[in-house]
Amino acid sequence: MTFERYGKRRPGGGARLRSRRGRIGQHWWSQRFVDALERTGDAGRLQRGRTYARAGQVVELRVRPGAVGARVQGSRPRPYLVEVSVRRWTASEVEAVVATVVENPLLLAPLFEGDVPPGLVDLLAGVGVDLLPVDHEVAFDCSCPDDGEPCKHAAAVVYALAEQLDAEPATTLTLRGVELADLLRRITDAASGPSDPLEDLGAHVVTFHRAAGPLPDLGVRDRVPGRTVADDLDELVLGPGAAGTADSLRPYYVALQARPGQSRA
């Protein structure tokens, strides 16, 4: 995903952040993400990173499961390549997320709308799963010569990412290695419960028919010799003004009964 849509494109650069001063990130999830960066980063590099991000020097930002790749325009003509990696959830953590949502179905509506409800963070924390990455779960890599972590280019990427988290909260799930569509599918499957295999269903059908026993008496009258379907027609079926119609049809039904190989009426 390019970063162009998050602000006005400027010649030769990326999109400027909506935030012009002060804190970057409007919602709780983006602010927590930025807090994790600012607790460990060098103040000078962070300040330059904010300046870079606000000036539109993050020219490309692509989020994939477990990482963010970006290009950041620095002092050199060629942009620097930056990657911010986030620890992906383990299989057991994903199962815990699925179970948590199944047990709290009110979370489903916002998730289907692409939102991440704040309650999900607290519920997951209660089962030992962090939705937003903490300090040691984030790693930075940049092609610039600065060996600081994060460097100003990586810091700029995190600030740009914070605004994307505001626009697309489900990006937090992608950073944890789970796409929202896949997570919703797992939740739906878990909520529906396991289904019987095909062979088990066949066994159930056989058991059903074996246990059925004799058919009950349905009260069907034996067919009276010489009586045909025409005798069962009445005014309710034929409608008013149809007197004599049954008598006219009776010979045809009698003839059909007499033909060999035909089903009896």
UniProtKB/TrEMBL annotation:
Keyword vocabulary terms for this entry: Metal-binding, Zinc, Zinc-finger
Recorded GO MF terms: zinc ion binding
Any Pfam family matching the protein: SWIM
Domain SWIM-type: start-end pairs: 127-162
Domain of life: Bacteria
PANTHER family registered for this protein in UniProt: SLR1429 PROTEIN (PTHR38133:SF1)
Full protein name: SWIM zinc finger protein
Classification via InterPro entries: Znf_SWIM (IPR007527)
